[in-house]
Amino acid sequence: MADKDDRAISKSRFGRAARVGKALGGQGIKLAGTASANVLRGSEGGQAALEKRHTQSAEEMVKTLGSLKGAAVKVAQMASIIDVDMLPEEYREIYQRELGTLRQNAPSMSWKKVKSVLDDQWDLPVNRLFQDFDQEATAAASIGQVHRATLKDGRDVAVKIQYPDVADALRADVENAALFLRFGRMVAPGLDARAVAKELKARVLEELDYELEAQNQRRFARAYRDHPFIKVPEVVTELSRERVLVTEWVDGIGFDDVMNLAQADRDRFGEIIYRFAFGSIYHLHQLNADAHPGNYLWMDDGRVAFIDFGMTKRLGERQMALQVAVISAVFDDDPDAFAENMEELGFIKDRDNFNVELLMDHMKLVGGWYLSGKKQKITRAYVMKAISALSDPRGQYFELVRTASLPADELMGRRMETGVLAVLGRLGASANWTRIGREWWFAEKPSTPLGKEEWAFFEERGHSRSPMYRPA
Fold first, then answer.
1. For site-directed labelling of 363, which of 92, 147, 236, 417 has its Cα 20 to 30 A away?
2. How many folded domains does the chain comprise?
3. Any residues with CB less than 8 A from the CB of 449 and at least 6 apart, and which?
4. Is the domain of 328 the same as that of 455?
């Protein structure tokens, strides 16, 4: 009988959907039964039983989604970053903790399967290319896993290897629009699930091509090479293939360990993530849409390494200018300019029959953390308040947001923005996010010590500090 790790990944669209449904639906029935039984129990015993059932439910979801890998794990990974707002508040921590194990601990494949992929991708055997190759995975993600190795020239590298059959499994997953429904409502409640699934399908399937990821990572690595606090590992181009990506190895501590650092360190970590995630739009006209804790490492020298570039988005000059024009209109409290630029971006289809002032208020709430002009600590409560403004049918903005549109070019940016906010919320990071943003939007002077370091770096490279937005 084959080991559990050696079982083939299910590729059936309906089979995979059924397994997810069984895990989630079955646990829901058990939770309902436990809640009913609590009526007959004492309150203390009932609470303990319900908490035990929630823990078991989360563990079952981790087991099922982890064994599926593919897009099902991606949905679970996103759920582990953002508090599970569908649950009573007292149980969100349980689900977040258990689902969080999927960020880097998805079930790994055996060395036999790893070697079969490597032999297929490379002309030479592993022992001819490497001094040493660790047969145990150091990290596992949704569509592949990472091994540490040493090249013949002594360089330590990370080798990311795509799971066999995951391409077919991933395509089966993205055909199941229901798997994306929750995520779609979070980043784009104004669109129906089908439209969200279609856009996400195109972006998620790009992640199957590691050669495309290598191209993206090379671009970021060149832009941030020798940066004072941002590290993007270099790509070993000669060994990277469609299903294998080889990059420079980076040592550092993961997000869970960062969470145990002093608040000043977490603030620094948060500012670096913010400067990289949003600043790359200005410096490269490109963003990394996959913002989640498993992609960040805190290095011994105080830099933060960014290690996954499978889902990025290029932005044009006009799109960037319109985005900042919208921000400028919010600062100026100018609903006419706001409506004009939101319409040009594609968020508003019929300006004359749209409550523009209410939409401005909504943006001030959702984006208030980087629009308030004040130093602000990002808390989990704030994150949930912002997300609820997008998805809570009881809220004053729900019908408004449902009638707004979300152009395809904006979807990945909103995903990145939501992910970064969630990460900052878990860190409890504090900064004047507005003043940092104004460095990019309006070419204002650097507002923090990190900002001074960063702008010295880019100006030395000939990148002048010019505003992203110039009013007509």
1. 92
2. 4
3. none
4. yes
pLDDT single digits (tens) 396-417: 666 666 667 777 778 788 889 9
Per DSSP bridges, beta strands 144-151 and 156-162 are: antiparallel
pLDDT digits (tens, 9 = 90+) for 8-23: 555 544 444 444 444 4
What amino acid is encoded at 160 in this protein?
Answer: K
Residue 181 has phi, psi (to 5 degrees) of: -60, -45
Q: What angle do CA 437, 281, 72 make, to 5 degrees?
A: 110
Could you tell me if 412 and 304 lie in one domain?
yes
Residues 150 and 184 in one domain: no
CA separation (Å) from 168 to 65, 129, 208, 386, 445? 16, 29, 10, 36, 50
Taking phi over 0 as left and psi of -120 to 50 as alpha, with beta for the rest, 402 belongs to alpha
pLDDT tens digit sequence for 339-383: 999 999 988 877 887 888 888 888 888 899 999 999 999 998 888
| 274 and 362 assigned to the same domain | yes
Q: What is the CATH number of the domain that holds 135?
A: 3.30.200.20
Torsion sign over Cα 454, 455, 458, 461: negative
Cβ within 8 Å of residue 87, ≥6 positions away: 54, 95
